Amino acid sequence: MASLLHSRVFKGFGLALVATLVAGPVMAQGQDRPSPACMAEIRTLCSADGRRDRARIRECVRENIGSLSDECAAEVRARAGARRGENTRASQAPIRRIPVARTVIYGADQRQQVDIYEPEDAVEELPLILFVHGGGWSMGSHKSVQGKPAHFLSRGYYFGSAGYRVLPYAPVEQQASDLGAAIQALRGQASAIGFDPDQIVLMGHSAGAHLAALVATDPQYAGDAFDAVKGVILLDGAGYDVADRITAGDPQSYQLFTNVFSTDPARQAALSPITHVGGEDAPHWLGMYVDGRNASQFQTQALTNALVEAGVEAGALPISDTDHSRMNREIGTQPGAAQTEAIDAFLTLVFG
To answer: Which terminus has fewer CB within 10 Å in the chain: N or C?
Structure first.
């Protein structure tokens, strides 16, 4: 599979869209800071635990801008474009919005739910692509799906986006358990929804990639639903070997990973997908990373190499002319986007 994917000719197509939220004096035209109503949306989305860490909020907005109202998202884009001296209207591609068809509740917490997007007039059971959002294990929203539903529905798949509890209220063990419970609940309702209960592909971005990989290598989380996971798509994750990430990372990464995974080597190993490779693993894997982003490149290659050595079909693929947020955001929205082409080719290999 790796040789097939690497042999494809990819052309990156960038969308310069970076939201930077730093407090400062409001300019006369209102370009330096979004409106109070927009700031309220941002705080609701990205400061659920009451913290106001600006760096964390910036990253949250980058990953979840699709969850903001159109008006607020336009303000953030305009502000970012004004700082770069760009005309953001000219660089934006329209996103076709698909309404949520139904929501599957799998727990008492408001985050424990999965939004389901359904293709029209499906006459047979189709596979399900289940997306796991990122956000550093402490933020993010399953509502942030951008153009993914429209793209995957048009390709003949159901699409789901899974919410899960986050830090500080739920440690990573519970986040993975949430994802496993979501898969079990979805399989239980598959006949009512219409998708094939035994044909699920997990797709995760950033921290969501780590969670998807953990659930797809350690059967304790999904239980009897584990075998339904036929493939895994990883989008620029950098936490598949937690201990290595802590020892090899920069001070900022060290602080993030020790805060999330503690300094306990046994816990770090238990929550590292690479530790579980060689047991019961999902059979097909595609790991993508931003070309030149060393941490995600090393971690992705290490995981996929371990999977190959264990007899699993897996490949690692660099994506050029993108960044950590755009790799996720532009799936299905940019003509010729390399990550979209790679995903479509991978799903053809998995499902035929």
So the answer is: C
Q: How far apart are CA 83 and CA 89, in angstroms?
A: 14
pLDDT in tens, 324-349: 999 999 999 887 899 999 999 999 99
Per the document, the length of the chain is: 352
DSSP 278: T
Which of 176, 169, 164, 45 lies closest to 107 in space, CA to CA? Answer: 164
Q: Which residues touch 350 (CB under 8 Å, ≥6 apart)?
A: 127, 201, 230, 231, 284
**Tokens (6 digits) for 327:** 């790799």
pTM of the predicted model as reported, rounded to 2 decimal places: 0.80
Q: State the DSSP code for 168.
A: T
Give the containing element (helix H, strand E) for 173. Answer: helix 172-188
Residue given tokens 């070309």 in the structure block:
291
Name the pairing type of β-strands 102-105 and 158-162: unpaired
Given a contact cutoff of 8 angstroms between Cβ atoms, the answer to whether 221 and 182 are in contact is: no
Strand arrangement of the beta sheet that strand 126-132 belongs to: 102-105, 113-117, 158-162, 126-132, 195-205, 229-235, 284-290, 313-319
For residues 195 and 206, what is the distance between their CA atoms, to the nearest angstrom? 26
Q: pLDDT tens digit string along 238-289?
A: 999 999 999 987 898 999 999 999 999 999 999 999 999 999 999 999 999 9
55 backbone φψ class: left, alpha, beta (φ>0; ψ -120 to 50): alpha
25 DSSP assignment: P
Residues 238, 286, 160, CA angle at the centre, nearest 5°?
90
